Amino acid sequence: MKNFQDEKQRDLSVNKSDGTNKFMTTDQGVRINDDNNSLKSGDRGPSLLEDFILREKITHFDHERIPERIVHARGSGAHGFFEVTNPIPELTKAGFLKEAGLKTPVFVRFSTVAGFRGSTDLARDVRGFAVKFYTQEGIYDLVGNNIPVFFIQDASKFPDLVHAVKPEPHNEIPQAASAHDTFWDFISLMPESMHMIMWAMSDRAIPRSYRMMEGFGVHTFRLINEAGESTFVKFHWKPKLGTHAVVWDEAQKISGKNPDFHREDLWEAIEMGNFPEWELGIQIIPEEDEHKYDFDLLDPTKIVPEELVPVTIIGRMVLNRNPDNFFAETEQIAFHPGHVVPGIDFTNDPLLQGRLFSYTDTQLSRLGSPNFHEIPINRSVAPVHNNQRDGHMRQEINKGRVSYHPNSLGGGCPFQAKISEGGFSSFNERVDAHKVRERSTSFADHFSQARLFFNSQTSTEKSHIVRALRFELGKVETTAIRVRMLGLLSQVDRQLAEQVAIGLGASVPSTLETPINKGVSPENEETLKHEPTNAESSVNASDALSMIINPTNSPTIASRKVAIICTDGVSEASVMNMKNALTKEDAKGLVVAPHLGSVLTDSDGAIAADFSLLTASSVLFDAVYIPHGMSLNELAEDDTVLEFLNDAYKHCKVIGADGEATSLLSAAPFALKMSNDDPGIILSSDSGSETFVQDFINAMANHRVWEREPNLYN
Ligand code: HDE
Predict the structure, then answer these.
(1) Could you say which of 36, 86, 145, 171 is catalytic?
(2) Active-site residue flag, 72
(3) 628: Cβ below 6 Å to ligand 1?
(4) Could you identify the atom of ligand 1 that is nearest to the CA of residue 77?
(5) Which site from 33, 304, 442, 506 is most exposed, i.e. has the minimal number of CB atoms within 10 Å?
(6) Tens digit of pLDDT for each residue in 542-578?
């Protein structure tokens, strides 16, 4: 196999322009002499219709927007490569997975689901995690999410789900939020969504960074080897930086302070050379184990617990190049779960089957032409030859008179490939059944894995789920919907339902008598084909489901940002010690000062401010450091500083202070709550000591000081 690592090789076929040292021209290549004035009859006279330069420019502008994605409209992307570390030729004939060290260029697009293109990054939402592999055998798209299950089991419910979660149609409110009546109305009548709801109400739905999210293929797929044998497989992306989230109060504040937080984070990390990296793992399930488990492999509301089938790592993905142009690349990229290469195939998961129709259809309306594969970001590196012709904006200039098959005039070309020559052939699955509109009874248990997820969370994470549900349902105006949800939650965990009920000032209904358990509204009971069941999962709890005890997390502060609050008189040595130590760990210390420009140091030097207190905010950083030497009275009276510290404390971040700066903490509003043994408050009477800096870094490496949280809320 030829190594296709160098994405530049991919780019050779792509027309790039940056205008540097070039004449400005019209789209027809005519050099423009004056781009500032339209053609007029006299300098105060009417504009002339013949001004082809003006009309071309304005017409192009008028058509600059294309329809945004109906879901996953808000996204961010990057280029990189995938490298095989543990080849699996015995499982798949896919060339890009067959050889150790083989690199394949990729483009990844991360996204939120519900919000419009201009919405905030920090909405409580599922994140899309879509990867396009430019393999030598054609395009392979792994179009996944950061949550391994989905809300619904059958594609026919997807438009309903999306209508329910999007802003309500009469007033288009709320933007990028599930906390409203129509969403919870739908969910409260769809018990199959309960597993996904547990994930969506957990901190998975408010990641700290796209770089700190797991990714999942969600459906069970098939790998097909040279002998044509199939193996079931689940795909997992495991982030090198661990799986981390922000807290909900923080997410809401970030949405105001910097709605581009995740976009910027991804962009900056790549610009700084902190290339985001994931391992690709697979759960391998032999064909003969199809019916071995107490859930159905075809049911997309179920995971295969890692306790039953461990994840085998087969490769790694590194994102190392930002796009040149957002629209041309991130917006115009067209993913499709049906873009597969020989060696990868589908299962009959009824959600996946529906997706296989949807994605081409959506590209046709969004990109406007069946030629969307010719847009540079979508082009295959494997040569494309077929008899598809014409259509809007066709780029290819097909030569010759033959555009049909079979033909003799073109020598039979392009010719079909035998399987041994890499021709795609679908897995030879036997299908022999009646035509029915039914759902398998093996899909009927909607609660056991929701409970498995809840049981697997630490007490911190459980309390976050309770608070998320109180928030979301608290925004629901219709009492009956809230009560139905409490009924469903009680099927997952009685205590969970009771905790949520306290926040809603309601009580948990005795659910078995209410229509909610039937998954249909009272008016539509006759459409019910199977009663949902509530079984016990064979696995009780799984560490991999908790973000806090996730076994793939290892302590690191790489790429984290620390706010160093400085004003005149600050100890230059302290600031520089901290900055240098952070840089060594691939993290960044950024100076936040009362104003931009620079602050004067104790040794008559000057330190440049990266942010002013007005433009910075604690929620945009991972930790705060207050170095010694400054005039503390001034800082202690500044509400912005106190709010900065208070937020950092409330969001369980590490706060460090040395020398007399430690006394600033006693002026902060949280001082009364602060416990003496809080492992995230790092104080040293000794200014800039090495142990102090190291203690600060060690505390940060665990992401957040969750031990603090029980003191914060009732
Ligand atoms: Fe999608 N989904 N989806 N989806 N999806 C789209 O395609 C759809 C589903 C996912 O960054 C759309 O190009 C249906 C599951 C991602 O460009 C659309 C169903 C999973 C992205 C569409 C699902 C996903 C999309 C909108 C149920 C996780 C963004 C624009 C049958 C495995 C890709 C577009 C990007 C995008 C349809 C369910 C992931 C409308 C009908 C499950 C990551 O075609």
Answers:
(1) 145
(2) yes
(3) no
(4) 11
(5) 33
(6) 999 999 998 888 899 999 999 999 999 999 999 999 9
CA 352–ligand 1 middle distance (angstroms): 10
Does the annotation mark 407 as catalytic?
no
Pick the closest to residue 547 from 456, 629, 628, 627 (CA basis). Answer: 456
Q: How far is the CA of 135 from the centre of ligand 1 (A)?
A: 22
Q: Is the CB of 359 under 6 A from ligand 1?
A: yes
Strand-pair partners of 641 = none
CA distances (Å), origin 560, targets 272, 609, 653: 12, 18, 12
**Alpha-carbon distance 646 to 228, whole Å?**
61
Nearest atom in ligand 1 to 362's CA: 44
| CA 590 vs CA 112, 180, 318, 561: distances in Å | 28, 38, 26, 7
Q: Quick check: 41 and 115 in contact, CB under 8 A?
A: no
CA-CA distance, 337 to 339, in Å (whole number)?
A: 5
Q: Could you tell me the CA-to-CA distances from 48 to 1, 63, 677 in Å, in that order?
A: 60, 22, 77
> Which of 186, 192, 201 shows the shortest CA–CA distance to 453?
201
Given this model, what pLDDT does residue 511 score? 56
Is there a contact between 103 and 124 (Cβ–Cβ < 8 Å)? no
User: Does ligand 1 come within 6 angstroms of the Cβ of 353?
Assistant: no
Residues 127, 213 contacting (CB under 8 angstroms): yes
The amino acid at 469: L
Q: Which candidate in 72, 446, 651, 703 is catalytic?
A: 72
Do the beta carbons of residue 573 and residue 688 sit within 8 Å?
A: yes
Nearest to 75 by CA among 367, 334, 278, 253: 334
The residue whose CB lies within 8 Å of the most ligand 1 atoms, and thus the one to mutate among 353, 358, 372, 373, is 358
Q: pLDDT tens, 72-82?
A: 999 999 999 99
CB hemisphere CA count around 674 (13 angstroms): 21
